[in-house]
Design a protein that fits this description.
By secondary structure, the protein is an alpha+beta fold. It contains 16 helices and 11 strands. Among the domains are: 91 residues, no CATH class; 198 residues, Transposase Inhibitor Protein From Tn5, Chain A, domain 1 (Alpha-Beta Complex). A hairpin with a 6-residue loop joins strand 8 and strand 9. The longest helix has 22 residues.
């Protein structure tokens, strides 16, 4: 299929529509007087800071603000300092950011969900996984977020994400401490699922309470099993020939002892080159999802892992840069929305005969290539600034790059974990020359003079 390239602003306008901005403005009604940082410039600068280049927050802010000014020449200029932007961002309630994510999810539901249904049951495959995000060692973050890895490790946040398979498109997410429970995150995300969703997850997402919560939300699941799973089946089973069959899931402590009913589920075995994969689902009828379709669904689950690779490596979010809890939450929320829009632009679609959106799955666009196009569009837009505006942008960049912080306290606030303390070199050893040593020394000096 021949691809048609569109500009960055045209592509973004497909998702950030006037209706989306209307929902955002209705959600945020600031109580204080009018500020230079209204909802639209705050969101645009927050998103652009994720896309553009820069080694520090100051550099990214300078480019993002200049890009917004270049695109909105007839509107009021936002503030000029990173500190002012961060203060405005803290005043922005989190539910406004979630309103923007909800509005975008509605746009994606109209464009992609119906085209992704699979099987006679019309299931929408949704991958689920989580990952930790390291944070700076600021005092507030260490006190509020705590440690989640090795002893004396840096504070971290945890993000659980739902992804539309097979597109790998970010659907919804939830943030928490580094020690947050993935099962609790998934329970909170069940309300965001589309109708007849099929959750595809790895072996960590096992449990009677989790399965019953998914079924109560009228969704389905496809979960990989491990050796800690205990299943019951009528009659003897020959594992070497087992392919699929109906089983009962009824753990002792969480179900049998509490008088809860067993779950009637379907067990499948997918042959692999290195190891077989055992999968458990509540879709009992093979006519709704056959063995081959289920094997393909679990292979698509690895695109969830690719999502975090894009987020951490491509967008440089291995470590968040904000130093307060409020800014960490907003930085993570805004960067995930930026990733969501980036992946949506990488999804190729076309219109059918009846104006039905058809998703092209055979040759998806590279998210890295889309990011480079976005950065190229940002630089191209910056060149349209007037001489005074471009000079002010260059001056801001130079000031940020050459900024030297005046220290009022010690350079090191705490001992660095798992690293030896620096010991300065000890003074040299000075010895007194003996007569024998003096004789040898003087002979050597005379030989040099001769």
């Amino acid at each position: 299929m021949r691809r048609t390239s569109v500009s960055f602003r045209t592509g973004i306008a497909q998702f950030l529509t006037a209706q989306v901005w209307k929902q955002v403005h209705q959600a945020w009604r600031p109580t204080q007087a009018a500020s230079r940082w209204t909802a639209q410039p705050v969101f645009w600068v927050l998103l652009t800071m994720t896309w553009c280049c820069g080694d520090s927050q100051g550099e990214r802010f300078a480019s993002a603000r200049a890009f917004y000014v270049a695109c909105h020449q007839k509107q009021r200029r936002p503030g000029e300092t990173l500190q002012g932007f961060q203060m405005a961002l803290v005043r922005l309630p989190m539910y406004v950011l979630r309103t923007l994510a909800f509005a975008l999810r509605q746009q994606f539901a109209q464009r992609f969900v119906e085209a992704l249904r699979i099987g006679k049951g019309g299931y929408v495959p949704v991958g689920c996984d989580g990952s930790r995000l390291e944070c700076p060692r600021a005092e507030q973050l260490q006190a509020r977020l705590g440690q989640a890895g090795k002893p004396d490790s840096a504070p971290s946040a945890y993000v659980s994400a739902l992804v539309l398979l097979p597109l790998g498109l970010l659907w919804s997410w939830r943030l928490g401490k580094g020690t947050a429970s993935e099962h609790d995150h998934l329970r909170h995300l069940l309300s965001t699922l589309p109708k007849r969703a099929l959750i595809v997850a790895d072996a960590f997402y096992q449990g009677y309470e989790l399965y019953t919560a998914i079924l109560a939300s009228k969704a389905s699941f496809l979960v990989r099993l491990s050796s800690r799973s205990r299943l019951y089946k009528e009659g003897a089973v020959r594992l070497e020939r087992f392919r699929q069959g109906l089983v009962y899931y009824w753990p002792e402590k969480t179900a049998q002892d509490q008088g809860k009913p067993p779950l009637h589920l379907r067990l499948l075995r997918v042959r692999g080159p290195k190891a077989d994969v055992w999968l458990l689902t509540n879709v009992l009828d093979p006519r709704e999802l056959n063995h081959q379709q289920i094997a393909q669904l679990y292979r698509w689950r690895w695109r969830n892992e690719g999502l975090f690779r894009y987020y951490k490596r491509m967008l440089a979010k291995v470590k968040l840069q904000s130093r307060t809890v409020a800014l960490v939450h907003r930085e993570a929320e805004g960067s995930l929305i930026a990733l969501q829009l980036l992946l949506a632009l990488a999804t190729s679609t076309r219109q059918g005969n009846a104006n039905v959106t058809m998703v092209v799955l055979d040759r998806p666009e590279s998210p890295r290539r889309i990011l480079l196009r976005i950065r190229g569009a940002i630089m191209e837009r910056l060149r349209t600034l007037g001489p005074r505006q471009f000079a002010a942008y260059q001056e801001m960049l130079e000031r940020v790059r050459s900024e030297e912080r005046r220290r009022t306290s010690s350079k090191v606030r705490q001992s660095w974990p798992r690293r030896k303390d620096h010991e300065p070199p000890k003074p040299p050893v000075i010895l007194t020359m003996e007569e024998k040593f003096k004789t040898r020394l003087f002979k050597s000096l005379r030989a040099l003079e001769a």
